[in-house]
Design goal:
Substrate Binding Domain Of Dnak, Chain:A, Domain 2, alpha+beta, SH3 type barrels, 3 domains, SH3 domain-containing protein, SH3 domain, 7 strands, coiled coil, AH/BAR_dom_sf
Length: 474
Amino acid sequence: MASQHEVVAENLQGTVSKNLQDLLQELKSDRKKHLQEGARLQEQLKQSSQMLEKAKRKYEKAHSDAERSLENYRKADADINLSRAEVEKHRIVMNGKVQQCEEAKNEYAAQLQTYNNHQTEFFSQSMPQVFQGLQEMDERRILKTQESVFQCAEIEKNVIPIINTCIEGIAKAAGNINPTQDSKAVVERHKSGFPIPEDVQFEDLSQGQPVDPAHSSPAAHITTPSSTLKGGTVSGKSKKRGGIFGLFGSSKVDDQKEDFSDLPPTQRRRKLQQKIDSIKKEMSKEQSEREGILKLKDVYANNQALGDPSTLDKKIEENSQKLETLTRELQKYEGYMADAEGKTGSSNSLPGRRNSASEDSHSLSTSGSGDTPHTQQVSAPGTPANQHNVYQPIDGDEEGEDEFDIFPVIGRCRALYPFEAINDGSVPMGENEDMQILEQDQGDGWTRVRKNDGSEGFVPTSYIECHYYDVDQV
């Protein structure tokens, strides 16, 4: 389910978000252009209004001067004391003022006509065009937003079937919960393996029976929720009962011993088995790394241009030392297991695996000599990683293969979706096809399976529903 949410997020970021960001930049540019055009038209109308006001003031001043000069001329013409030359002078001044007034009047009339034309054009054509552009821009924004919403819905719609399948799986898993079986699993996990204490014997002191300090008090045989004295022995030592009784006692836990001998028998065997499995898993990992170094060394030996084979000797030696250390650890814990199970002997070696660093070094040296070169396969993108336990025969192996070439069945799986094998090592599968699990996902997203026709290979882990046997045994 989380992977589908990631798919939704990637699609939204790759398509919807990118388109919206491009649209945002385009709308910003268009809006700026329209607003600048509107501001320019307003400035033109304002300048035309200022010129009209200036022409009007000029006309008013010229008209006032003409009226004043006309009044002066009339007074001079009526005054009998003034000479004819002075009257003529007043007449010339009056004519000049009247002419200036007419010119100012004509200029004012022309400027008024220009302003009226600009104002009519501004309110009937220019600004409506600007507003129309802004409206079309906003409609385009709304349309693109609508398309983005449709895209989001389509992306969500595409993953709904898969999410519904996941939800059905969750509901199915919840329906498979069985309280009785779960409680039995808890009881099984906390079983101690100690026998039930024997009845306390009556001690008749009147008959002269000796008093046994170990049985002198009934408290020595009383089973308490936290511990039981003399409940059992491991290696001849008295042990305290643990397991489920520890649920009612103190939560303080002392440091466990290396061989887990401080635990009850059943829990000790379980802990030892877990430790053995952990060591085997680590050995498998180191063996896989060793095989990779071997192949790389063979490649360097066949083509010196790629690298010097001697540079890998240190890594090979370190890997051999790790394998030898793990082998000794495995032998030690197998001995502890044999002691816990009461066996006389323990396994000293792993079948089909070399037990010393010298044999590993010998196999490494012989493999690098060119007698049996290892093949280095180059996988296409998406091919299952080679970190799974798939090994090539190594010089020095008598049978040519070891225990890691045989994969036991560890569970079953069902295909949730069909898959077409397009890479080496993968196998195709149909929807709802049942298969056996041979190897868990090692972190590369692939799981090794075996089909009903016997073919084996890798399939995507996210395409199958897994059910492991070891989960049922817990």
